[in-house]
Design brief:
Two copies of one chain form a homodimer.
Chain A: H1 10-29, H2 32-39, H3 43-50, H4 53-77, H5 82-99, H6 103-113, H7 115-123, H8 132-144, H9 152-168, H10 170-177, H11 181-203
Helix pairs in contact in A: 1-2, 1-4, 1-6, 2-3, 4-5, 4-6, 5-9, 5-11, 6-7, 9-11
Chain B binds a DNA duplex through residues 10, 31-33, 41-45, 47-49, 51-53.
Chain lengths: 205, 205
Amino acid sequence: MVKREKDQTTEERILKAAKQVFVRKGMAGARMQDIADEAGINKALVHYYFRNKEKLFGVIFMEAANKLFPKINEIFTAELPLFEKIERFCVEYITVVIENPYLPLFVLNEINQDPEYFLQKVWSGRSRPQPEKFLQQIEREIKKGTIKRISPLQLLLNLISLTIFPFVAKPMFQKNLGLDELQFRSIMEQRKKEIPKFIIDAIKK
Amino acid sequence: MVKREKDQTTEERILKAAKQVFVRKGMAGARMQDIADEAGINKALVHYYFRNKEKLFGVIFMEAANKLFPKINEIFTAELPLFEKIERFCVEYITVVIENPYLPLFVLNEINQDPEYFLQKVWSGRSRPQPEKFLQQIEREIKKGTIKRISPLQLLLNLISLTIFPFVAKPMFQKNLGLDELQFRSIMEQRKKEIPKFIIDAIKK
DNA sequence: ATATAATTTAACCAAATGGTTAACAAAAGT
DNA sequence: ACTTTTGTTAACCATTTGGTTAAATTATAT
């Protein structure tokens, strides 16, 4: 009795399996056979649909990148008051990542392995992040005197670090602090409000 | 003309090469041949000194882990006022990592690939982190009224996230913000003072 | 029904890769 | 001097792995 999900096309099954295997083991550690097994099909079928490992990996990587990067850029370019922007970024970002907790480490690791591939593949399609606008907005708030003097770049690093890192270090934190899935999830939920509060307390005058 | 560093034993050359290759490509992506080439020796020599890939990897991984984890624990267990602890943690930790910027991602990634190996190998030697003391210290400060009400665990996550994440995401940040090595380094130097200031501003009453 | 196209599989292949062996060279011990 | 131990190498081996092929099966069209 093979447990094939019904109403799922073969291509979908392969993609689902590939995501599982690639995200868990990385490009180098993933095996085409593992992907085929996970999908419950013959290995040659994987090649039939996606030609080779690199192509299949490209699809999965782009899927992951497209789940993570546009959200960041949205915030950068949105027309919103600074504090509200920070709040919305945390809530929306954590909401996405909480359902895919292993994506950030996967993407960061693959970028690290081959930054050029990343640069070319991820941003050839015009969605190149433009943090300038966000940085300028911070400078404006400083001049207005609504927030303390702080390097806009440092503030940006802080915001992203606080939001993403706990997911990157999820297994470490869980082992170190003895947290099960539910506890971890709950703590991340808390952070949706905790991070904005923390940041705003730090910069508000 | 083979460029062998003088006064370096073969074993040292292998370890240095292995570190380079493992940290850059990860356990799965590293090739014994690459390590031999990087060390400028025959592949069999690598096996002569370290038997197999897993053993050699173990040495490199432990070396990396021992550079990163004890520092964290030191701060947890030290007898210091909270604010001073935070300051010293940032300064000391960034000082270490700035010279080995790729270690955190390497270690986190390998932990992610096999959390059990990590648990057993890294903490079998009694240096298991004990964050309890640090968390209690935070609670005490809250009751004393010197800092705002905040979940001690969240504050701990914030401290570590702010300190480590920029290194984990180094290639991404560099590509995104167009930073060369010197600029990146300089920004990390700034963070030694920026992070404590940011945190203390956020929690001080 | 039957031809045609799309899908799926078992068997196979070549290259890559971790690891071994046997011979050789250098150092150290006697 | 020569024996033994240690270090080093080229050649080799077995397994893994990405990828191919040809045949079989299923779906689609006529």
